[in-house]
Design brief:
This protein has about 190 residues and is mostly helical. It has 8 helices and no strands. The protein has a single domain, classed as Oxo-4-hydroxy-4-carboxy-5-ureidoimidazoline decarboxylase (UraD-like, Orthogonal Bundle), CATH 1.10.3330. The longest helix is centred in the last third of the chain and has 23 residues.
């Protein structure tokens, strides 16, 4: 049986991805998106100024590097923009009181809001995880807690950025930040 001529390969048009949109966005739009991920002007400018990124992995690596390079002033700025994770509406009042007291002790000791990346922690387990985190981290000295806060901010920024770029299609790691569960739940305070 003789086959006829085959048709030339059909090329699908390139559809822009969220990464393409981020790379092409005006500086103020890219900066605003980044400030929703981490509340540091220097961090957001640094990442925006290095566009375009060839893939999501490169963008997330740049976000990591910029987070580790936060100065004490940048860290303070980023922490000022954070708030405690939202609790389920049906959280009983004794738990809310315990969280308020623990957070007040944390702020008195360290001078800033407690930050924690909850990733895919089920909503009903968030209160326990936050309380456990505050109580255990109250034992830290200020330098150890600074390091822990930077790490939690890095994970929060990664999760938020990956969420905003979900569907970029180029990065299987766009779901969880390095060493963290998938950020299925809304980011704390956002």
């Amino acid at each position: 049986m003789t086959r006829g001529p085959t048709l030339p390969a059909h090329r699908l048009p390139h559809l822009p991805t969220p990464l393409d949109a981020f790379n092409a966005a005006p500086d103020d739009e890219a900066g605003a998106l980044l400030l929703h991920c981490l509340h540091s002007l220097r961090w957001s400018r640094r990442i925006a100024d290095h566009r375009p990124y060839p893939d999501v992995e490169s963008l997330l690596a740049a976000a990591d590097e910029a987070t580790y390079d936060l100065s004490p002033a940048d860290l303070s700025e980023a922490l000022t923009g954070e708030c405690l994770p939202e609790l389920p509406e049906d959280t009983y009042s004794a738990a809310t009181t315990a969280l308020t007291a623990a957070h007040a002790a944390y702020e008195a000791k360290f001078g800033h809001v407690f930050v924690i990346y909850l990733g895919s922690t089920p909503r009903e387990e968030r209160l326990d995880r936050v309380l456990e985190g505050i109580y255990s981290r109250l034992e830290n000295d200020p330098e150890d807690e600074r390091v822990m806060s930077v790490e939690q901010l890095r994970r929060l920024a990664q999760g938020r950025l990956a969420e905003k770029l979900r569907g970029a299609g180029q990065c299987p790691s766009a779901a969880p930040p390095r060493g963290a569960p998938s950020p299925n739940a809304p980011a704390p305070g956002k």
